[in-house]
Every structure is written in structure tokens, then in C-alpha cells.
Amino acid sequence: MRRVFLAMAVCCVLASPVFAGGGVDLYAGYGEVVDGEAELSLGIRLSLGGEHWMFDATATGYQTVEDVKIVDENPYDDDTFKYRVYDLGLRYLFYDDTHKLRPYLGGGASLASSSATYARVDGGLGLYGMGGLRYGKTPGIQFMAELIYRWAEADVRVNLGDEHDVTVGGLALQAGVSFVF
């Protein structure tokens, strides 16, 4: 019975952009993860809102960064680092629905979820800001491209008692397809 309610909840969440005037974005990207290392990413964004203002809930997962030294005190130079980020924010789309090309700006809060092989990493809260373009008919399928900058502090423990703050995130380019309702 629990699975039925979970399936119904997932369907309601995925269908909510249809009823609230939003959309679903599927995108791929390339951006900074940690220590200047960049990797490929995949993500999904659910948007709710009207003609100009949109509320966004986003999940992005990056490929594992191999052979990185997260902190100088880490005795291992070949650590692997996994990075996932969840964003909640607002976005403003310029022009109205009659224009095919619509630039936008947005920002909000990020939750960074990270892990490493030889260190304990506690994810942190951060911020993001973005700017991008959409092209296509509303409602319908649109194409999107955006630059996004994410910043978050993660606590890294290498040995017992040694705790370090590490900045995760950075500049990323994302492009994909939007299904706008």
C-alpha cells in the first residue's frame, strides 16, 4: 500500500507543471566540481509558475572526479570525489509567451551532497545564480542553454579531529530540452 501512495505522489509531482503553468527541463552540462576540476553532468528541473516568474526545483549529478587531492592534509593524492547538487530558486523570463527567444535570470539556494573515497565529506548549503536563453514555442518543446555559478562550503574530515572547509561548485554550462506546458 505504501508503494501505491509513493507512486501516486511521484505522479502528482511530475504532473504538477502541467496544472501550474510550468515545465520540465532535461539537460547535460560541463562544470567545475572541486579544486578546479570539471566534469560532465546530467540534470532535471521541474518548474512551476506563470508567464514571467518560475519556481524551480533542480537536481544535477556530476561524473566522479578521479585522482584529486581535496585538502593538502590528505595523504592520498588519488582520491575520488562524487558531487550532486539540489537547487531551489526563482527565475525571471523576459518577454511574454509570444516571443520564441526568451532570455532569463535566476538564483536561489543549493544543497551540495558530496562524498570521497579517503575522506568524510559533509555536504553544505550554498547559493547559485544563472542566466540563459530559451528558444521555442509555448506551450511545446523548447531548447535551453544557460550559464550557472554554484557555490557551497563542504566540511571535509581526513583524520580524526582534522576538519577543513572546501568550496565545491563553480561555473558550469548546461544545455538541453524543455517541455513547457
Give a short summary of the structure.
The chain is mainly beta.
Chain-averaged pLDDT: 85
> Radius of gyration over alpha carbons?
18 Å
Major beta sheet summary: 8 strands, antiparallel, barrel
Beta-strand segment tally? 11
The ordered string of helix (H) and strand (E) elements is HEEEEEEEEEEE
For the largest sheet, list the strands in their spatial order.
Answer: 1-2-3-5-6-8-9-11
What count of helical segments does DSSP give? 1
How large is the share of residues in beta strands?
over 45%
Helix content: 10-25%
Overall spatial form:
elongated
> Pairing-aware structural class of the strands and helices?
mainly beta
Any key phrases for this structure?
single chain, 181 residues, mainly beta, eight-stranded antiparallel beta barrel, 1 helix, elongated
